Amino acid sequence: MPLSFTHSTASLGPGPGPRPTGSTRRGAHLLRRSASSCYLNEFYGSSEAFLLHFESLGPKLGAMLEISPLEEMIVLGNPSLQVREMLGELGAKFYTPYVGFSR
Questions:
Q1: Counted domains in the chain
Q2: Residue 101 lies in a domain
């Protein structure tokens, strides 16, 4: 990944804009000091909230993957079949809750 990662991603423009009513989206974009890799962690309250975000992200996805190729995608939870199919095409690994707790 080039050292100009932060400048390159800034050229993609602003994010998807305001969240739709009733959706939950939180995220963290963590960049290594050397700018050699980035870790993205996002949370969605529902599959519908994710789909709305992905719809607005779609036109930018190709450029984003050129700047920072996808190394791994892990999905935690019970996404809809539509989300599973979409993310499955990108090589996502799915983990469904089995036992435990959440705060």
A1: 1
A2: no
Report yes or no: 9 and 61 within 8 Å, Cβ to Cβ. Answer: no
Write out the E strands in the chain.
Answer: 25-31, 38-44, 74-76, 93-95
21: tokens are 């009513």
Boundaries of domain holding 14: 5-95
What are the structure tokens assigned to 60, written together? 């930018």
Quick: pLDDT tens for 4-47: 555 555 555 555 455 554 455 555 566 666 666 677 788 888 89
Distance, CA of 48 to CA of 79 (rounded, Å): 9
- Asked whether residue 64 is assigned to any structural domain, the reply reads yes
Q: What is the pLDDT of residue 85?
A: 96
Under 8 Å between Cβ of 6 and 34: no
Q: Is residue 102 part of a domain?
A: no
Q: Is residue 32 part of a domain?
A: yes
